[in-house]
Design brief:
Elements lengths: L13 E7 L5 E7 L3 H15 L8 H8 L5 H13 L13 H13 L1 H7 L5 H13 L11 H8 L4 H13 L3 H18 L2 H4 L3 H12 L7 H20 L11 E2 L2 E2 H6 L41
Antiparallel strand pairs: 1-2, 3-4
Helix pairs in contact: 3-6, 3-9, 4-5, 4-6, 6-11, 7-8, 11-12
Length: 305
C-alpha cells in the first residue's frame, strides 16, 4: 500500500514514483491525488464529452458542448410555448402525457434535430413537462445552492430598495450560464403571466410550479424540502414580478453578449462562449452590478401593483 502523505501526493500535482521490484527491476508510476469532488467533476466532464445527454448533466458542461450559454432545450421549449401555449389553460401546471415527456427527453438526450421536430408535434403540456424535468434534474440547481441562504435572507429584507439591491446583486453573482439562462426564463415567464386572464397562470402560480425546481437548499432532506417551498416560491416570484428595467442595473456584457439583449426577446440568436471568466462556484458571491444604484427611488418596483 502506498501512503499518499509520505509520498507528498496530497498537493494534487502529478508525481512520478519509482518502486524497486524484487529480485530486480523497477516500476515507475505517475500518480495524482484527487478529492472526491474532483473525481465527480472529472466523471461528469467525461460524460458530457462522450454523450449528447442534457438531462442530469451540469449546466456548464452542456453550454460548453453546445457552444451556447443557454441550453437548446430551454430555448426550444420556451419558444414553442410562446408560439402555441400562451393561452393554454394551466400551462406549466398541468402535466403532459408521461409517454410524450419521455419521448422528448430521449430526443433531447440523443438527437437535437429530432427534438426540434418533436417539440412542435407533441402536446404543449408535454413540452413544459420536459422543461420542468430538465430543471428539476440539474445536478446543481439553476440558482446555485451556495447562494440559497443569501437569497432567502435578501428576500426577507423589509426595506424594498435594499431587497431589490441585494437580490439583483446576488443574481448577477451567479456563473454566466446560470445568469443568462435565469434571465431568459424570467423574461419567458413574464410573457406567460401576461396571458393569465386566459391561461390562469399568474406570476404567483408560475413561481409555485417552477420555484422548487430551480432553487434548492444545501441541506435538501425531506423535512427541509417541505419547509423551504415557501422561500423557493417567494424568491422566484420576486424576480418574475420585478420590472425588467430593474434587472438591468447597468450595461453588462456576459462573454460578449449583452444582458439587455437577453431581456429584450426570448427569440434570439445563439450566444457564443468564451472563457474569459470562470464559471466555478468559487466566483459566486463576488462583487456584482447593482448596489446603491438600485436603491434610488424605485417605489413602484413590480410589474403589477
Amino acid at each position: 500500500m502506498i501512503e499518499l502523505v509520505s509520498y507528498g501526493l496530497l498537493d494534487q500535482e502529478i508525481h512520478t514514483i519509482d518502486l524497486p521490484l524484487q529480485p530486480q527491476g523497477q516500476l515507475s508510476m505517475k500518480l495524482q491525488y484527487l478529492t472526491p469532488e474532483m473525481m465527480l467533476k472529472r466523471s461528469e466532464m467525461m460524460k458530457a464529452n462522450t454523450t449528447t445527454a442534457v438531462f442530469g448533466v451540469r449546466l456548464e458542461l452542456i453550454t460548453i458542448r453546445e457552444c451556447d450559454l443557454i441550453p437548446n432545450i430551454v430555448r426550444l421549449c420556451a419558444e414553442e410555448v410562446e408560439k402555441r401555449g400562451l393561452e393554454e389553460t394551466g400551462v406549466y401546471r398541468i402535466s403532459g402525457l408521461a409517454s410524450d415527456v419521455k419521448m422528448l427527453r430521449e430526443a433531447f438526450d440523443v438527437d437535437i434535430d429530432q427534438a426540434e421536430k418533436l417539440v412542435k408535434e407533441v402536446d404543449i403540456h408535454a413540452v413544459t413537462g420536459a422543461l420542468k424535468l430538465f430543471l428539476r434534474e440539474m445536478p446543481e440547481p439553476l440558482f446555485p445552492r451556495v447562494l440559497y441562504n443569501r437569497f432567502v435572507e435578501g428576500s426577507n429584507l423589509s426595506n424594498i430598495d435594499s431587497r431589490i439591491s441585494c437580490m439583483v446583486s446576488l443574481l448577477y453573482s451567479m456563473p454566466d450560464a446560470n445568469l443568462l439562462t435565469t434571465l431568459y426564463l424570467i423574461k419567458h415567464f413574464k410573457t406567460v403571466s401576461q396571458f393569465s386572464a386566459t391561461n390562469k397562470m399568474t406570476s404567483s402560480n408560475l413561481a409555485t410550479v417552477i420555484g422548487p425546481n430551480v432553487l434548492k437548499p444545501i441541506d435538501d432532506g425531506a423535512d427541509r424540502i417541505v419547509l423551504d417551498v415557501g422561500n423557493q416560491v417567494s424568491i422566484f416570484g420576486f424576480f418574475v414580478d420585478l420590472r425588467l428595467d430593474l434587472l438591468e442595473p447597468e450595461e453588462r456584457d456576459v462573454d460578449g453578449y449583452s444582458v439587455q439583449e437577453v431581456l429584450s426577446s426570448t427569440s434570439m440568436t445563439k450566444i457564443g462562449i468564451m472563457t474569459s471568466r470562470s464559471t466555478d462556484s468559487a466566483n459566486m458571491g463576488r462583487e456584482s452590478p447593482g448596489g446603491a444604484g438600485l436603491t434610488r427611488g424605485y417605489l413602484d418596483i413590480y410589474s403589477k401593483t
